[in-house]
Specification:
GlsB/YeaQ/YmgE family stress response membrane protein, mainly alpha, 3 helices, membrane, transmembrane helix, single chain, Transgly_assoc, transmembrane
Length: about 80
Amino acid sequence: MNLILFLIIGGVAGWLAGLIMKGRGFGVLANIGIGIVGSFIGGFLFRLLGLMAQGAVGELVTATVGAVLLLAIVSKIKKG
């Protein structure tokens, strides 16, 4: 995948994850970083489940799922 497209999808996924996790976001730039890391996590989890993303929309869904999971984990650690 093109690096620029990867960064854009990760950024959008982080932004969406911040909206989904209302109140658990860490600001725009941090959420973009979380989206990029979340795309790796989502891709790993989807492969474990035998799922495969198709196209940009599939990649966005995968990255968003990973980013939401990462935000949930980070917020739990931050509270503890």
